[in-house]
Amino acid sequence: NFTYCPATGLAKGNEHLEFAGWAFPFPGVFLMEEFISEDEESEIVELMDRDDWKPSQSGRKKQDYGPKVNFKKQRLKAGSFTGLPSFSKNIVAQMKACSVLGGFLPVEQCNLDYMPERGSAIDPHFDDWWLWGERLVSLNLLSKTVLSMSCDSEDSIQLFPTFSEEGINSILSPRLVPSKEVTVAIHLPRRSLVVLYGDARYKWKHAIYRKHIEHRRICVTFRELSAEFSAGGRHEELGKELLEIALSFQGRPV
Fold it and tell me: What cellular component GO annotations does this protein have (predicted)?
């Protein structure tokens, strides 16, 4: 019932719905359109398709480049991980131009293939917090889609009016609505890069619904290590080892 506006950082109520004319700040989203060119996109997808796509949940297929993880037992080892793929070296280099990605060192890459014929989707979820760090970075390829944000919190959200009609702002006071009643759509154009961090990473779940997969879509997600595996953390040495492997850019899907 709200749509994220990259220009203002606001979630704005959709027209003709109950929250039309209302908005609230939606921090923790960075969106860059045309992050790569059409030629770069074609080359990346062609290289991906040379490797097998393994069946995944909810009608998706995947290619994983990352360490072997047991999230339930919180165990991690390099396993058969040989690094991120060579074609990602330029993508990672280009990320350095993004202000929110200073010091971002990806240790895992997951390619997900969505097709409408397979009913591809992903349910609302948080990415793991024990292993993965603050910033989740995704490159959206081949077709546009919508990232749907929802919140299970018992908190309320304060909305403020954005009506432009004369005098109406002086009548309306901010209103509180339960977080659970609010959903925010982040529109992802083809070849755009989106970063979720802060509230958008830790307070809001993200999902892709079937209705928003109109054509083949590939999502390339990069994740960084949490503080526990970074400098000064309990598992700093293991983190260093994994980063060294990841950033060799010699990897094959595991």
Answer: contractile ring; midbody
